[in-house]
Write a structure and sequence with these properties.
63% helix, mainly alpha, 84 residues, elongated, single chain, transmembrane
């Protein structure tokens, strides 16, 4: 299954929740980084880490599919013991 098919495949509920949490973290991190006031260096660093962590969490959660979807006939992967 290529990356485009994985991104378009249905995402399990747990990973939808994680994706939304990741999007929120990325938004908070981006807001901290784009603040119009001078913030301490530590706060800016935390904002950067939040943005990166949120982006990675969202991306990984989006391309996660259920086990049954990964074994569909269109992927070319067969279950153990299945007949061709």
């Amino acid at each position: 299954m290529n990356i485009v098919k994985r991104a378009k495949a249905p995402t399990p509920k747990f990973f939808k929740v994680l994706r939304n949490i990741g999007l929120a973290l990325a938004a908070v991190g981006g807001t901290i980084l784009a603040a119009p006031i001078a913030l301490p260096t530590l706060v800016g660093s935390v904002g950067g880490y939040l943005a990166v962590a949120g982006g990675v969490l969202s991306a990984i959660s989006q391309i996660t599919t259920s086990y049954d979807d990964a074994l569909s006939p269109s992927t070319g992967i067969r279950r153990a013991g299945s007949k061709v």
